[in-house]
Amino acid sequence: MILAIVGTGFVVGFLVGLTGMGGGLLMTPLLILLYGFSPTMAVGTDLIYAATTKAFGSYQHFRQKTVDWGIVKKLAQGSIPGGIAGVLMIRLLDRTTSLPVEEVLGHILGITFIFVSLFMLSQLLKRHGQRPAKPAWKVPIRLVGLLGGLLVGLTSVGSGTLFMVVLLSSTSLSAALLVGTDVVHAFFLTLSAGVLHASMGHVDWSFVSWLLVGSIPGILLGGRLTLRVPELLLRLAIILVLLFTGIKMV
């Protein structure tokens, strides 16, 4: 069992190292499908796992000065309150309604996975083989942060990928600044939402530790092989896992 957990961490870390995406998108459905986690435990465990891994990446980008702190600040001003609100919404539903919260959250996760997988597919089809276009539209960054944070607090999905899509669409940051800004913001968001989930008992700490044993070398190896593996195939694999999991959970 421990070897399987370490292996899961390695695979997810490897994919993140290769593509820069997919950590939260893959870990939550894998925890539910492979290990029988309840939705709330999967979300909380994934957020703490994500915050820990992103701490290492954030430190590296801080040293490299590849972070746009102005954008991080604006996103965090919306996303951290949004993430906290998402976690509290789960607690409120659990305490004040007779709704089966785990079942409701499972449906929310399923719908989210399907939506994100289809959105990622559309972006992939539009951009594959093309040079990035200049931003065609501007977005209210704090509002995007608020809505994205709410989704992350509820589902743990989107701390990196969804905000990356927004940054790609609305800014002209260099590739290095784009990744660094996204990673650092995701660290603050997942940490704040994860700590709140942990205070409610929604984190399997032993599981997190074994995942990290596999994910850290996985990230390092994936980063070295980035230029050798077709990115299109990897992103399609992530999309298929999300879509399959979402359909199963709805």
Give a concise summary.
The chain is mainly alpha-helical and about 250 residues long. The chain has one domain (about 1-250).
How much helix, percentage-wise, in residues?
over 70%
Query: What number of domains?
Result: 1
Given the structure, what is the number of helices? 10
Spans of at least 5 consecutive residues with low confidence: none
Q: Judging from the principal axes of the Cα atoms, what is the shape?
A: globular
Order of helices and strands: HHHHHHHHHH
Mean pLDDT: 80
Q: Helix/strand-derived class?
A: mainly alpha
- N→C terminal distance: 28 Å
Radius of gyration: 17 Å
* Biggest sheet layout: none
**Number of distinct beta strands:** 0
Taken as a percent bin, the fraction of beta residues is: under 5%
Description:
The structure is a single chain. The radius of gyration is 17 Å and the shape is globular. It contains 10 helices and no strands. It is mainly alpha-helical. The mean pLDDT is 80. The protein has one domain. The two termini are 28 Å apart. The longest helix is centred in the first third of the chain and has 28 residues, at 69-96.
